[in-house]
Write a structure and sequence with these properties.
Layout: E1 10-18, H1 22-30, H2 32-38, E2 43-45, E3 53-57, E4 64-73, E5 77-82, E6 95-104, E7 109-119, H3 123-149
Antiparallel strand pairs: 1-7, 2-3, 3-4, 4-5, 5-6, 6-7
């Protein structure tokens, strides 16, 4: 970005490596039963498929959230949109989150990248972006612990 370019939206990417093949890691996001074991403390409803609206419920952050699945392309990518505070997000329907699953080490491991964008470059937008950056980093750590060791890191972490 040049010095004179205006910042019109905030976004971030977090990543980590999971010692499982991409298809298995993809399912950990797409399959609501698996997602409910390590991330959505109140449960998830609906499989992540293009055009679907699923629900993610976080008991440690009250309320269930509708999640619009913009794209689901196994085992490489899932893109979703979920609501946010209209004062903090650029898009009226919330932010866009993209999960990318890339094979490494001949497909025995997966690099998982989570990118979220569309936060307003304001104090409210920065607060939302930084909070969700923390949340997605925690999600990746919880996913790794669950898939590799069967340990639920999220339980009791936020409440």
């Amino acid at each position: 970005m040049s010095d004179d370019a205006a910042l019109d939206a905030l976004g971030f990417t977090v990543f980590g490596f999971v010692s499982k093949p991409p298809a298995e890691v993809y399912e950990a996001v797409a399959d609501p039963q698996i997602l409910s074991r390590y991330f959505t403390t109140g449960g998830a409803v609906g499989r992540a498929e293009t055009g679907a609206t699923v629900q993610w419920d976080f008991a440690d952050f009250p309320g269930a959230f509708p999640v619009e699945v913009l794209e689901a392309r196994a085992p490489e990518r899932i893109a979703v949109r979920w609501g946010g505070d209209p004062a903090a997000t650029v898009h009226p329907d919330g932010t866009e989150v993209v999960f990318e699953f890339k094979p490494v080490d001949e497909g025995t491991r997966t690099e998982v990248r989570v990118t979220e964008r569309s936060w307003r470059p304001t104090e409210a937008g920065a607060e939302g972006a930084f909070g969700n950056c923390m949340g997605w980093t925690g999600m990746l750590a919880a996913m790794k612990a669950w898939l590799e060791h069967g340990i639920n890191l999220r339980e009791g972490f936020y409440k």
